[in-house]
Write a structure and sequence with these properties.
A hairpin with a 2-residue loop joins strand 2 and strand 3. The strands form 3 sheets. Strands 2-3-4-8-9 form a 5-stranded antiparallel sheet. Strands 1-6-7-5 form a 4-stranded antiparallel sheet, covered by helices on one side. The chain is 24% helix and 24% strand. Helix 1 packs across helix 6 and helix 5 crosses helix 6. The longest helix is centred in the C-terminal third of the chain and has 20 residues. By secondary structure, the protein is of the alpha+beta class. It contains 6 helices and 11 strands. It folds into 2 domains: 138 residues, MutM-like, N-terminal (N-terminal domain of MutM-like DNA repair proteins), CATH 3.20.190.10; 125 residues, Helicase, Ruva Protein, domain 3 (Orthogonal Bundle).
């Protein structure tokens, strides 16, 4: 599933073309791509056509494009394999194309945003914007905590939240109500970098260890962003259809049985919540 770096790469790629663009037409080819928009395709099209995108924003794994004229936005969740692609308006249909949004940009002219999704777990919707502190966010995102690269992320509140949870620290990192945007890949990488065993109870971490973990989370996410995200196959690509290359920088995730880059021990792979955890038992000791 695309995590924070991948969704941020898509948001940043969409912004120059989408912001300021008027929506001249919307084609829905598969209503399964509107599971988050229960009013259906006709309402979705009617809410968008003739409107203008004002911005491109993100929280965690959600991205949205606020609309002019009302407190609403086009919201996207990419699910497992969703793609937001920029294309010429007359470009041939993409494989697994579900929705095409035609735009008129004052500088870039005519173009299209294509939503393609092989596994159909992603969705687009038009959602109301609601107040969250000093921000307006889609109502479907209210339950999502801020992410560690958000300037408004509260380190003190994060430490307090961990001190109240006896669950394994990796499980807490994946809890979107505590901190958003960190999925399986970046949890494993951050815990490896911080030398913390993934099964360590969150409330047993010292303030120093939590600070070190937050610093490593941010460093891992920043490196992944700089390298365009992580692509293991063609399902995650940026708006131009290009893969990220952070997979070449992974130290723990997907390296089960291989030497630890830090100590030379063997990276262990264990089952975890229908997924896998990857860690080095030698330098991520469970205390």
């Amino acid at each position: 599933m695309p995590e924070l770096p991948e969704v941020e790469v898509v948001r940043a790629g969409l912004a120059p073309a989408a912001v300021g663009s008027r929506i001249s037409g919307v084609s829905v080819f598969d209503e399964r791509a509107l599971t988050r928009h229960p009013a259906g395709a006709a309402d979705f099209v009617g809410r968008l056509e003739g409107r203008t995108f004002r911005a491109a924003e993100r929280r965690g794994k959600f991205l949205w494009l606020p609309l002019d004229g009302e407190e609403a936005a086009l919201i996207a969740h990419l699910g497992m394999s969703g793609q937001m692609l920029l294309r010429a308006p007359d470009a041939a249909a993409e494989r697994h194309e579900r929705i095409r949004i035609h735009l008129e940009h004052p500088q870039h002219g005519h173009l299209a945003i294509v939503f393609a999704d092989q596994r159909t777990f992603g969705s687009l919707a038009v959602d109301a914007l609601v107040t969250d502190g000093n921000s307006l966010i889609p109502s479907q995102v209210v339950h999502i905590a801020r992410d560690p690269v958000d300037a408004a992320f509260d380190d003190v509140a994060f430490r307090a939240a961990l001190s109240k949870r006896a669950s394994a620290i990796k499980r807490v990192l994946l809890d979107q109500s505590v901190v958003s945007g960190i999925g399986n890949i970046y949890a494993d990488e951050s815990l490896w970098a911080a030398r913390i065993h993934p099964e360590t109870p969150a409330n047993r971490l010292s303030a120093v260890a939590v600070g070190r973990l937050l610093a490593e989370v941010r460093a891992v996410l920043a490196k992944a962003l700089a390298e365009g995200g992580t692509s293991f196959d063609a399902q995650y690509v940026n708006v131009n259809g290009e893969s990220g290359y952070f997979a070449h920088s992974l130290n723990a995730y997907g390296r089960g049985g291989q030497p630890c880059p830090r100590c030379g021990g063997s990276i262990r792979r264990e089952a975890f919540m229908n997924r896998s955890s990857h860690f080095c038992p030698a330098c991520q000791r469970k205390r």
